[in-house]
Design a protein that fits this description.
Blueprint (H helix, E strand, L loop, with lengths): L2 E6 L7 H14 L3 E5 L2 H7 L2 E4 L26 H13 L4 E6 L1 H14 L3 E5 L15 H22 L2 E6 L8 H7 L4 E3 L7 H13 L5 E6 L7 H11 L5 E5 L11 H19 L5 E6 L2 E6 H6 L7 H9 L2
Parallel strand pairs: 1-2, 1-4, 4-5, 5-10, 6-8, 6-9, 7-8
Antiparallel strand pairs: 2-3, 10-11
The structure holds 6-O-phosphono-beta-D-fructofuranose.
The site of 6-O-phosphono-beta-D-fructofuranose has 10 residues, from loops.
Length: 323
């Protein structure tokens, strides 16, 4: 293999740049040529492809977002789109790919490999931390710390005004961001898609708190919770406790930006190197990840079909720590 391509796809995540940098520098180190593909699969289809050198990735390790831009490609879902992408890669002489992204990215990569056989290795880049095959994904640690910083600030107002704040964090359909936000942010209640937390339970917890002279509360709601969004949950609770002074804060895309933490820069660098070394060793259709501090490669099909379970003790921790 002489020439590889790298792209970022799906939601951007802090540390993607550090990963691109590691991929480019590892390729250069081993004497491979490396091409950047802009805008994920959309750029692959359009041939938005350029040669990268070591200098191309100077001064980006500390930056959020992705130098290569990102997209969720609808065209790549079609056979024609993938055929066009293959033609472009062939025209550019690209013999191997490194995909940085989440489950949508790897679903696409898996189909593409089965159809056209271009060796592909993935680096888990998503704030959601919802990928099987790695303890942590690139961007997760930064997102949690960004959210936590916001929650600390919200707590000041919750405390001053003696309010109940329903704070919605990202995660699509996973509670991985919500759990450390709740434990680290000292929340009274956490609601995640993986466990059933009823509105009655929320009301019971609030009433129990008030009876113990607690005057402010933080309820962390993960996107995708079975009771609905933070706004819907706050409305359902308010219906039964009309005099409750409640506010809703949706943290949203603030969680996706910003400079990556040390942990994310380290993970991104480690996995970037592992992706290129994996390709060179003849690996394909796998994601590089770290489990129990060891580097592992997991087939794409497992990363997208198997669920990474959340330790149920974590929700219990929130209950214990808020009595
Ligand atoms: O997958 C990352 C993520 O930020 C999810 O947490 C969230 O549900 C989704 O992307 C938002 O996607 P978009 O930026 O396309 O609105």
């Amino acid at each position: 293999m002489k020439r590889i391509g790298v792209f970022t796809s799906g939601g951007d995540a802090p540390g993607m740049n550090a990963c691109i940098r590691a991929i480019v520098r590892t390729a250069v180190y081993y004497g491979l040529e490396v091409y950047g593909i802009r805008r994920g699969y959309n750029g692959m289809i359009k041939g938005d492809i350029f040669k990268m050198e070591s200098i191309t990735v100077s001064n980006i390790i500390q930056k959020g977002g992705t130098l290569l831009k990102s997209a969720r490609s609808k065209e790549f879902l079609t056979k024609e789109g993938r055929q066009a992408a293959y033609e472009q890669l062939k025209a550019h002489g690209i013999e191997g790919l490194v995909a940085i992204g989440g489950d949508g990215t790897f679903t696409g990569a898996n189909i593409f490999y089965e159809e056209y056989g271009i060796p592909t290795i993935g680096a888990p880049g998503t704030i959601d931390n919802d990928l099987y095959g790695t303890d942590y994904t690139i961007g997760y640690d930064t997102a949690v710390n960004t959210a936590l910083d916001a929650i600390d600030k919200i707590r000041d107002t919750a405390d001053s005004h003696e309010r109940v704040f329903f704070v919605e964090v990202m995660g699509r359909d996973s509670g991985y961001i919500a759990i450390p936000c709740a434990i680290g942010g000292g929340a009274e209640i956490v609601m995640i898609p993986e466990t059933d937390t009823s509105i009655d339970f929320v009301i019971e917890q609030l009433r129990a708190g008030w009876s113990r002279s607690k005057t402010s509360f933080i309820v962390i709601v993960a996107e995708g919770d079975e009771e609905g969004s933070a706004t819907e949950i706050a409305a359902k609770v308010s219906q039964q406790i009309p005099n409750m002074d409640a506010r809703v804060t949706i943290l949203g895309h603030v969680q996706r930006g910003g400079a990556p933490t040390a942990a994310d820069r380290m993970l991104a660098s480690q996995l970037g190197i592992a992706c290129v070394e994996g390709l060179m060793a003849g690996r394909t259709n796998e994601m590089a990840g770290i489990i129990n501090r060891e580097l592992v490669y997991t087939p794409f099909i497992e990363t997208i079909t198997k669920q990474k379970l959340i330790n149920p003790n974590f929700t219990k921790m929130v209950d214990i720590l808020s009595v």
